[in-house]
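Notes, Module 5: Reading structure tokens.

Key idea: the token line is not a picture. It is a compressed description, and you learn to read it the same way you learned to read a sequence, by spotting repeated patterns. We will look at two proteins. The first is printed below with its tokens.
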Amino acid sequence: MTHLPRRLGVLALLAVCTACIDSAAQQNAAQAIMDLGDQLGAMHEDNAILQAQIDSLRGALARQDTLLRQLAGMAGLPVPTR
């Protein structure tokens, strides 16, 4: 029974030590979250650029398809339908 106060003291000390959060760890976590947000924003920008390129390529393909159909029609060649 004489060790009970000592054990309670050790448990209380452990509880206090684990309750303290390292400020450097908090700063590192906050910086990592901010970096993640920046990376996510950059990915959104890249995605928007790629989508614009895809839309542009679809427009060019549609123009070429129309031109080829017109040329085939003028030459009297059968044009397959999709």
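Here is the second protein, with the sequence above and the tokens below, as before.
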Amino acid sequence: MPNLYKLEDLEPIFKVGKQLCMEKQIPVTKMNMFQQYLGRLKKNIHMVIAMSPLGEIFRSRIRRFPSLVTCTTIDWFSEWPKDALQSVAVRFLGDIEMTDEVRKNCVQMVQTFHTDTEK
């Protein structure tokens, strides 16, 4: 992407890239130094993109950017049943010392948080 980096941004990139080129015993050129940076970037970058899978906009994006499917991990989040929310809440609150009444109210509160957030 042209002009993505300013000149002062490239200095630290080339400094680290030079060291990596020397370690790997490859010629120290601007291209090789930048390639070392890109390799580290691809290895360590993590992005979260949230979109609704419903409608034409999603299908259009998938057609225009097929790597959204082929090069990513997709987590589909959908509505949880109330008994599943209850089971998870009971499990996570199980080790916390509290009365049965307080525990019951906390489990109910966790269920409410999740269902209300979804709405």
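Summary for the second protein:
- The helical segments are 7-24, 30-44, 56-64, 67-70, 82-93, 100-118.
- Residues 100-118 form the longest helix (19 residues).
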